[in-house]
Amino acid sequence: MRQELSEQKLASLGLDPHLLDVVGPTLKVRSVKVSTSGEEQAGFLQSFISAYAFLMMLFFMILSSGQLLVRSVIEEKVNRIVELLVSSCSPTQLMAGKVLGLSGLGFTQMIVWGLAGLAVSGWMGAVPVQTEHILLFLLYFVLGYLLYAAIFIGIGSPVTTEQEAQLVTSYLIIILVIPLILTVPALQNSDASWISVLTYIPLLTPSMMVLRLSIETPAVSEILLTTCIMLVSIWGAMVAAGRIFRVAILATGKRATLAEIIHWVRTG
Fold it and tell me: Which member of 45, 115, 167, 214 has the greatest number of CB atoms within 10 A?
């Protein structure tokens, strides 16, 4: 309507309405991200796709592999197969075998999906994700998965039915969804104090670090500190899960209470 009114005003003044196309503003604004050296880097869309793709892959891998871990424990307890298994290996070895086997399955799926995505993007003539921090992405991916795998097998060992397993794992799924909700505000303001706080919470560290890496590279000290936090958390979660698993896989009948589980963890 503004264009039409302007042309009518020009015509009423005896001027050519097409002059508006000549004198009209042609300024086009494009937002870009530049490095400290002044070089143009990936824009917001590419950063968003990179971060969101990583978070979705981590979400689906933890969700699928974690539920498989819990279901395998429940199935072996119900069918009494676990008693035969622990007669030939220790509970710790059995738990390690489950984590390594299902982890290998999950990582194989992720590799196939990743290669398929890169092949399709290369065929289309564009790479929609950032490759600058791919090694750090993979590092936090592995650390995040191992932490959640330990938690899944720890909380899945005491349960005896599918309904109990779904109820318990639903709380972990809520935690996994939080980074997906915070993707856009985190990318728009990566220096916010609340992002720094969430970075040092082990369950959210991998996701929040990936969001920050997609915008700008954090300090080396932060990368080393968060990596150490994840390693310590994984060790603690594995030890706790091993102590729970060792007792819970042979416990039948009465459902274990929270106090009993805490006792198992403390006494080993």
Answer: 214
Contact between residue 168 and residue 256 where contact means Cβ atoms under 8 Å apart: no
Crossing angle of helices 220-248 and 134-156, rounded to 10°: 20
Query: Two tokens at 192?
Result: 């916010």
pLDDT top residue among 39 and 76: 76
Give the burial class of 105: count Cβ atoms within 10 A of its Cβ; 0-12 exposed, 13-18 middle, 19 or more buried.
middle
Gap between the Cα atoms of 159 and 154, Å rounded: 10
Domain ranges of the chain: 43-267
Percent of the chain with pLDDT over 70: 79
Q: What is the pLDDT of residue 130?
A: 56
Instruction: Check if the beta carbon of residue 246 is closer than 8 Å to that of residue 91.
Output: yes
**b/e burial code for range 112-123 (CB count within 10 A of at least 16 → b):** eeeeeeeeeeee
Cβ within 8 Å of residue 202, ≥6 positions away: 147, 229, 230, 233
Tell me the sheet residues that pair with 41: 33
Work out the angle between the directed axes of helices 205-215 and 220-248 (0-180°, nearest 10).
160
Would you report the helix, strand and coil content of the chain in percent, each value rounded to 5? 75, 0, 25
pTM: 0.71
| pLDDT score of 47 | 64
How many Cβ atoms are within 10 Å of 219's Cβ, its own excluded? 8
